[in-house]
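Quick entry, no commentary yet.
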Amino acid sequence: MLILSNSPHIKTKDSIAVVMWTVITALLPAMCYSIYIFGSSALYLYIAGIAGAVLSELAIRFLFKKTITVYDGSAVLTGILIAMNVPPSAPAWMVVIGSAFAIIIVKQLFGGLGYNIFNPALAARAFLMASWPLHMTTGWHKFANGSVLSGSVSEFFGMPQAAFDTISRATPLTALKEAPQIAENLGVSIQTINDMLFSNEVIYSLFIGNVGGVIGETSALFLIIGGLFLMIRKIISWHIPLAFIGTLAILSYIYYFSTGDVDPIKGVLFQILSGGVILGAFFMATDMVTSPVTGMGMLIFGMGCGIITFVIRMWGGYPEGVSYSILLMNALVPLIDRFIKPHVQGVK
């Protein structure tokens, strides 16, 4: 049989389902480790996120009398990413609502997969942050002796137990943002807090994954492994992750070198490994629908994400800026694609 189609005539074995389930496979190591670290609460949130996204897509597609598309894995991936963007102790009902918002409002009302302007999971995170900020900023896991931020090493940094307990209840980025207030309230120097946050122990722990944060920030190691897997499978390219992480690294080095408060190299590692940088750079900023189509456009997109993340972290009201940086750059993608076009060969 002959197939009649418009050019370009490109054949590939990849499909939407293959791409989506491959990304889910790449996330499995980080998912399993987060369940190991945070326990059954993380598992329940994953289940809630997936169930909320799949059921919402089934309902809205049925209501609009459109083809059921839940088998392609896009709704499952959205539910997983939403769960990865909430604290381990967040209520399951909140994750279900966030998944419904992502699928119905951000994805399907814009026309379905391929037509949404913003990354659905990140838009849902912003929605949850605005609606239930207490749940989104206080539901952190309470580690025992398994975390470098536990009381077992408090004496090493020369801080009273009360100060150490205050810091260990927050994420590293929150502790860094609130360091002046913590120092004033508990009678310790800011330099002492910096020495702890930028210590080898904390940086190693950020890499392995036994510090506070949202579920998806658990382990930079497993997220990097998943990201490299996607690159090898050619599901994503290197442009956005390298531009995002590289820009943040350069700006962080310049900042810490100029201030002289901490070792610039440790400052760079802290900024890259903490928060949602690795998750965002490899798994969310690279979303095919909401990112540019050209290599140069991807580099500009990634650089913009890195700049905005750095600015929000250093001078913004929130300790983290990854999600907002990607959403803001999502809005600029049509403009980037319009002005960054490949050169047409053979034409003056």
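second:
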Amino acid sequence: MTAPQQSLPETPDTVPVATAPERFWPRGWWRLMELRIGVIPLPVVLVLLGIIGYFLHLGTALHQDKLPTEISMMIAVIGVGGFLCGELGKRLPILRDVGGGAILATFVPSALVFYKVLPVAITKSVTDFTKSTQFLYLFITAIIVGSILGMDRRVLVRGFLKTFVPLSLGSIAALAVGTGVGTAMGLGTRHSLLYVVIPIMAGGVGEGALPLSTGYADLLHRKQGDIFAEILPAVMLASLTAILLSGALNRLGKKYPHLTGEGRLQPDEQDEPALVQEDKSVTVEVEQVAAAGSFAIALYLLGLVSKEAWSFPAPVTMLFLAVLAKLTSAVPPKLQEGANIVYRFFRVAVTYPLLFAIGVSITPWDKLMAALHWQNIVTIVSTVVTLMTTGWFVGRWMKLYPLESAIVNACHSGQGGTGDVAILTAANRMQLMPFAQIATRIGGAITVTLTLLALRWLKL
């Protein structure tokens, strides 16, 4: 009978190691903070919603329909609202593939205001803040100056000059097709031309529909308010159409990469400043970013001077000055890269809050709905499609990327600077903002001027 074998003592290698459960603090909390709504951590969103709710309750108790007017409160309101709508649009099937984030960030708050779902205090505070600060123009300033200084100087001039060809031919084609379709739909040639097609390409609301309606009122002896209400739906619905189509083009570009420069207008164009490329040792400090921001603001204020002195649009003057500074190497490499960082910050952090503020303050939902009868829809869509299709084929003929050329032409049918932001956001090509401003500002101004001159001379 053999003796039972004695078990060997367990060595450290054979001892099972009991893994302690991971503590929530701090790593679990860190993972929670990495969950974002847009750029805002999820816990911060919940805290901000609680704070906003508290001040809304406090205002109701004091019978005040207004939130505190501090800029921090307004940033919280439009930031949470904009990123919530943007995230929803990015996640909805189908809509996410056609720029759903930009669409929902703009039009959901507009609908919430019209149907009185959004508290009056938020509506009033956001509207006052948006109109008093005009921070739409601060956004456009940062985007234009940053993107121009971040472009390859060698192709900048060629890009600007080439833009005019598809834009001009697209405008002529859209004028003919849109008027013809409107006439066939029973809207009448005169109505289709003056009240649908031309307002679409007039440059938006403030720079397009308003001066156009004023000129119509003087020449046609009608009330300006009535005319403005009549042409505004076409402007808004055309902008929505351009947003949807630009979002669809972005999806097309992902499927067929050879059709797009991913935001570059023409082949061999580089996004990084040429002088910075030559010196890879260039490092950008916070001071350079601040200096670039002040430089951009100075250019915009010079634009305001030109507006007061010669009635020339401030963004266009700013655009020309930024191009001049780039072409003459007036801006050192560090400042150029600082401007590029300012551009990227505004594109990522400010776009959706801005669209939310615009939706609340200056996007009338009822006017958009007024345009939704099928004759108007067919006429408007055919006008925008013709404008973009012409841009595509003429741009390709001009050795531009056809997808980018079509998107620039789409901005000619947008809702001014607001439309440019929404269209380029839906297309994920914010670096095209300088060319979009040419299409919107200069193209719109030419459209309005030629229309009013023709009305005066031809007495249509």
